[in-house]
Amino acid sequence: MYKFEPANPSFCSLRPFLRVQDGSNIVDYNYNRIICLNWLKSNPTFTVKVFCCESEASFLGKESSAALRNSFAPKAGKQNLRHQYYLQPQASSSKVAILGAAGGIGQPLALLIKMSPLVSALHLYDIANVKGVAADLSHCNTPAQVLDFTGTSELANSLKGVDVVVIPAGVPRKPGMTRDDLFNINANIVKTLVEAVADNCPDAFIHIISNPVNSTVPIAVEVLRRKGVYDPKKVFGVTTLDVVRANTFVAQKKNLRLIDVDVPVVGGHAGITILPLLSRTKPSVSFTDEEVEELTVRIQNAGTEVVEAKAGAGSATLSMAYAAARFVESSLRALDGDTDVYECAYVQSELTELPFFASRVKIGKKGIEAVISSDLQGLTEYEEKALEALKPELKASIEKGVAFAQKQTVTA
Ligand SMILES: NC(=O)c1ccc[n+]([C@@H]2O[C@H](COP(=O)([O-])OP(=O)(O)OC[C@H]3O[C@@H](n4cnc5c(N)ncnc54)[C@H](O)[C@@H]3O)[C@@H](O)[C@H]2O)c1
């Protein structure tokens, strides 16, 4: 007997896992839906349910336990061994590069990605201090092979054959600074790194974390365009942290189970351009006007909360690494053939009159398959006003990025 329970509503950034119950023995396996279904077909005698689990709550738990199960499989009892054999993940061939891997975000992000069984190789690039990070990480007994690359002479090699490039390189905010204040330094860094991506792995998914994301994504796009390799489906500004924060704060405020909460966040990734659509919260929940105002402002300023608490020692790194790992994991699942992957991201968009906009997108093997427009329909009056209010600021940040890139020399 088995039961397939696709509890996952389509527009939900949750992921399925397979729970196998054999007598009193219950094991959860993290799988994409295709593998789940194939397994179910060949094992019709188990009581099996496919559940959904919130990536936020489970990234480490599910992925690391899958990796650990790999190493322990030979020690399992005979009967279990057979079950485990069917359930072992196929070795995945995805290669991930982190540019800026020795930094505050880069290091914990590298650790989280190293724990994913979907990664066969993890390339760590930085201008300094990356050798030690790679040596340290390489001792973890998870499948991904870790390679280090230091300085511009090794940048090209760090990108060869890579499927996903994550860019957290740059300087973080200090108290009193806005994300825009980072522009001059980080704009140049992103421009240089994306040029190398264009030359060495033009088909890779590119995840841009370096701030100000509202401008660095248009810079990256302009560079790729001038290199003749721009694919709008594959360039993502990482805004997952806004969703992670929104989910956490809403769950706390309304006393909900964290794993149940999903709040889409649209617009951009700075101040008022961050617009959590609380009216679209799943599960459906009602908020007073005061709660909407308080939550919206807290989500918009959550980065500053961290910058001030760190008092000059940087900006959000651990929560950012966690959010970026979730986005990488979603991309890897999409590349692996999962057809049910949704995340919010800042991308080229036609949802509004602005050329770039963060919204929920459906990600597939070849990148963005759809930009989800339904979240923007039937907004509350508060959200409508906030949406109109954010547009001039977002437009200015986009134009600043484009103007910067157009002044640069890009080698063909
Ligand atoms: N998208 C988001 O939600 C979000 C959240 C937090 C921080 N950020 C941004 O992420 C970036 C990194 O933050 P951090 O706290 O890790 O900073 P950090 O200073 O701790 O680390 C940055 C790393 O980048 C490296 N680096 C600098 N120039 C480089 C280059 N040309 N090539 C490769 N590496 C280079 C540095 O050596 C350092 O290791 C900042 O721009 C920050 O504003 C984004």
From TrEMBL:
- Per UniProt, which keywords does this protein have? NAD, Oxidoreductase, Tricarboxylic acid cycle
User: Lactate/malate dehydrogenase C-terminal domain location, by residue?
Assistant: 239-404
**Residues of the Lactate/malate dehydrogenase N-terminal domain:** 95-237
Origin, by domain of life?
Eukaryota
Family listed: Belongs to the LDH/MDH superfamily. MDH type 1 family.
Subunit: Homodimer.
Q: What is this protein called?
A: malate dehydrogenase
Q: Per the UniProt entry, what species is this protein from, by scientific name? A: Vitis vinifera
Question: Organism classification, top ranks?
Answer: Eukaryota, Viridiplantae, Streptophyta, Embryophyta, Tracheophyta
